[in-house]
Design goal:
Order of helices and strands: EHHEHEHHHEHEE
Strand content: 15-25%
Helix content: 25-40%
Number of strands: 6
Number of helices: 7
Strand order of the largest sheet: 3-2-4-1-5-6
Largest sheet: 6 strands, mixed
Mean pLDDT: 91
Low-confidence stretches: 146-151
Distance between the termini: 27 Å
Length: 213
């Protein structure tokens, strides 16, 4: 199973600012969100390998889950270029319309959604062999005695809103335009099962753990 986690809240999130490669830490609420998501993931996937974006907010969330975190640069947030830390309302409707309709739209000095998809999808493909579904493992185990080394494992990837949306389009066989129709909360959990017939989305934007006392 591939478990995708969006990082906890930062000051930029709280102020409704675009947050790409700017490297803010979690704020107080974000730290609590990281603690809550860690608690549920440690219960459900105690043996999972944890992978993180290199940005601080993702690493802090990942480190709440595990003391052993691998960094994969390909899961970094979309580069918003000159739009980084710009208020969402300060982007003109014309720009938003162009951005939504053209996957090759590039914010000044930034990155296109198409470029994001290329790197994220490549990373997901590399992880696929490790993240087969537990059903797949059980079927193979019934056919042969798998050694501990041969068994695949759950993978937790702590990243950002745009890479997770890209992962959803990868799982569903869609394109970048689908990402604009997905709402993804901070510290949410999205799950993708990897089986012999490819990926399938099994859970999206789960935030039930944030409501627990």
């Amino acid at each position: 199973m591939l478990i995708l986690v969006r990082h906890g809240r930062t000051i930029a999130n709280a102020q409704a600012l675009l947050q790409g490669h700017v490297n803010h830490p979690l704020d107080e609420i974000g730290v609590d969100q990281a603690r809550r998501v860690a608690r549920v993931l440690n219960d459900l996937y105690p043996e999972a390998r944890v992978i993180s974006s290199p940005l601080l907010r993702a690493r802090q969330t990942a480190e709440a889950i595990s003391t052993s975190v691998s960094i994969d640069e390909r899961f970094i947030e979309l580069n918003y270029g000159d739009f980084d830390e710009l208020a969402l309302t300060d982007v003109s409707p014309e720009i938003w319309e162009q951005w939504r309709s053209d996957e090759n739209f590039r914010p000044p000095h930034g990155e296109t959604l198409h470029e994001l998809d290329i790197r994220v999808h490549a990373a997901l493909q590399d992880l696929s062999a490790e993240a087969r579904t537990q059903d797949d493992i059980r079927v193979h185990a019934a056919l042969q005695d798998l050694s501990a080394e041969a068994r695949t494992q759950d993978l937790i990837v702590v990243t950002h809103v745009s890479p997770i949306k890209s992962a959803v389009t990868w799982a569903l066989g869609g394109d970048a335009s689908m990402s604009w129709r997905c709402a993804l909360d901070r510290a949410s959990i999205t799950r993708v099962a990897i089986g012999p017939r490819g990926p399938s989305l099994t859970g999206f934007n789960d935030t039930a753990h944030l409501q627990e006392k």
